[in-house]
Amino acid sequence: MARRSLSANLLHFLSVFALFHTLALSKTLKRDVKALNEIKSSLGWRVVYAWVGDDPCGGDGLQPWSGVTCSTQGDYRVVTELEVYAVSIVGPFPTAVTNLLDLTRLNLKCFCKIRDFHNNKLTGPIPPQIGRLKRLKILNLRWNKLQDSIPPEIGELKSLTHLYLSFNNFKGEIPRELANLPELRYLYLQENRFIGRIPAELGTLQNLRHLDVGNNHLVGTIRELIRIEGCFPALRNLYLNNNYLTGGVPAQLANLTNLEILHLSSNKMTGVIPVGLAHIPKLTYLYLDHNQFTGRIPEAFYRHPFLKEMYIEGSSFKPGVNPIGMHKVFEVSDADFVV
Questions:
Q1: Looking at residue 112, what is its pLDDT?
Q2: Order of strands, edge to edge, in the sheet holding 292-295?
Q3: Each residue's pLDDT tens digit, 121-133
Q4: Nearest CA to 252 among 274, 283, 233?
Q5: Which residues form a coiled coil (predicted)?
Q6: Residue 113 has pLDDT above 80, yes or no
Q7: Residues 101-109, mean pLDDT to the nearest whole number
Q8: 16: three-class secondary structure by DSSP
Q9: Helices (DSSP H) in 195-274: which residue ranges?
Q10: Does residue 330 have a pLDDT over 80?
Q11: Element (H or E) spanning 197, and its range?
């Protein structure tokens, strides 16, 4: 047994040594070195100070650049993750990023939640070349000052699971091409200047769990959003608050049986609340406040086993309708979604 254990330990040591030897001998792909050095020259003094040496993956006794993760592919190292946040980077979106063709994670967001405190201030549009990053799974650009329309080429990122574009100045319509992202789970578009209707095609995303389009200038009705049969099969959280949505709450919304959070606050919606909504099995937070709803809240809501909050202030419900819960502002943290 002792000999076997010694052999196993020796094999483990040799395999680890071989791995580090390979990493030490591997060269970083020139394409990635060139791209990162272009990014370095465009992002400002804070990044320049932190990124030491000519090779972003490290070497010659130097560590990889902060926020840069590399992996070995054959005889070369490639950049697979780039995370630069909370260092007040400024200027246009660095187009050289789109030359890092092996990226799986791109994070250029601010790490804080106060808009003018150590925020990144990337400006201008997302370049259409973003569609080149075919392996990208997580794209996080929130809390910048990016603007213009979202390029339709973003629909070419077939591996994308997390898309964070909130707290920017994007305008125009939400592109239908987002429905071409089969792996997308989390879509954050809140706090921008989007107009028009929410594309019903988003309902075809079989894996979408979280959709937040709150605090924009969107119009239309929920009925239009859920018109595709079998839509939003995995959706848990739906934030439509602070827009200009009209019409009523359609009974068909109860078909979204995985819903846990439904946020309709501060729109221009009318009509009565259908009793079917109370039969969504895991519904936990329901925000109906500051609309023009009428009638009574069905008794079934008050018997719901999971409903913790139902906020109804600022509508025209009949006397005797009572809220549920403490009515605190509900906010889901980033940590709940990052994989």
A1: 46
A2: 270-271, 292-295, 316-317
A3: 889 999 999 999 9
A4: 274
A5: none
A6: no
A7: 94
A8: helix
A9: 222-225
A10: no
A11: strand 193-197
Name the 3-class secondary structure at 271: strand
- Across 220-288, the runs of DSSP E, i.e. the strands, are 237-239, 261-263, 270-271, 285-287
Report residue 328's pLDDT band, with 50, 70 and 90 as the boundaries. low
Residue labelled with tokens 């719901």 = 304
Query: What CA–CA distance (Å, rounded) separates 284 from 152?
Result: 35
Taking the C-alpha atoms of 159, 193, 289 and 303 in order, what is their torsion angle to the nearest 10 degrees? -10
Note if the pTM is more than 0.85.
yes
Length of the chain, please?
Answer: 339
Q: Which has more pLDDT, 6 or 56? A: 56
Cα distance between residue 243 and residue 218, in whole Å: 5
Which residues have CB under 8 Å from 302's CB, separation 6+?
322, 324
The residue behind tokens 């050095």 is 37
Residue 220 near residue 193, CB atoms below 8 Å: no
CATH for the stretch 27-336 = 3.80.10.10
Question: Long-range contacts of range 293-297, CB-CB < 8 Å, 24 or more positions apart?
Answer: 293/249, 293/269, 293/317, 294/270, 294/318, 295/271, 296/272, 296/320, 296/321, 297/273, 297/321, 297/322
Indicate the helix (H) or strand (E) that contains 71: strand 68-73
**Residue range 251-262: mean pLDDT, rounded:** 97
CA distance 64 to 41: 17
Place of tokens 């009523």: 248
What is the per-residue pLDDT for 89? Answer: 73
